[in-house]
Amino acid sequence: MTGSDEEGLAETFWAVARRLRHQTKGALEPWEISPGQARALGVLLRHGALRPGALAEHLRIAPRSATEVVDGLQERGLVERRPDPDDRRATLVAPTAEGERVGAAIRAARATEAERFFGALDPDDRAELARILRRLREE
């Protein structure tokens, strides 16, 4: 593969990623939540209450950025901060009942958008794409 072929592949990949990100952002509009906030809420729903630093690690963002995300979610009533029972000096972030409801609705909307997005591919192509993306993620 020549350098120009690789550049073409990278450009195509980024164009597809931008399109998927745009569709995902649109799917989140009914809840007025950012993609970063939706990711954080999803992590909390999967893992339960976490310290802000652990949430930042899951999201692969700086702790300060995680604090901003949590602040936004807390303002919307989707998460709450509470004392860590194992260390009273520490704080846990946990989804509220409303956060669980909104998180489930977002998960369903994202699944619908993903089905629409990848629906142009036949099952064999979808399986091959999933295999390739998993391999690239692992490297």
TrEMBL record:
Domain HTH marR-type stretches: 6-138
Q: Which InterPro entries match?
A: HTH_MarR-typ, MarR/SlyA-like, WH-like_DNA-bd_sf, WH_DNA-bd_sf
Q: Which Pfam families does this one have? A: MarR_2
Which ranges does the record mark as transmembrane? none
What are the coiled-coil residue ranges? none
**Protein name per UniProt:** MarR family winged helix-turn-helix transcriptional regulator
